[in-house]
Amino acid sequence: MAAVHDELMTWIAHKCFTRKPRKGAWNILDVKWVGKWKWVKSKDGKGMVRIIRMRMTLRGFKDMEAEGLVTFAGTSIRNSQRIVASEAAIRGWPLTTLDVKKAFLKGISYDELARITGEPRREVNFELDAESVAILKQCKGYEDFNPVTEVLHMLKPGTGYKDASR
Length: 166
What we know:
The chain is an alpha+beta fold. It has helices at 2-13, 78-91, 110-117, 130-136, and strands at 17-21, 28-41, 48-58, 125-127, 150-154. It is built from 4 helices and 5 strands, in the order H-E-E-E-H-H-E-H-E. The protein has a 5-stranded mixed sheet. The radius of gyration is 19 Å and the shape is flat.
């Protein structure tokens, strides 16, 4: 439960969603929680402790607008990666990797995406299961959240969603 709370707080901190009345909301998805055991430094810094991390992923296959969505992502195919690695080895170039934590949650908003692409603004909402709603109610600004009358309205594409890679 603490890991779910941490993940919800991360989404809130990155301003990924807001509350919206359920009446009139459409394209409502649900989420799947994915747990993963990780080793992290202990709080005293003297060792490692094993914790569980939860990731909230939107179940994008339920998106009513997904069929017409262009989902090109600027990643290379495996053969291109091999060519780059080969050339780097031949020429003595160093190769590095970079991991941007929470990259999708730090991305652009649906409003910015619509302005840049000229496409209509996407309407994406989601709902949580009862246990997750109880945890959401512990977060500032969501203490009186009512899943019967409200949904969570996406402001940015989130993890597991077709728009995230854009």
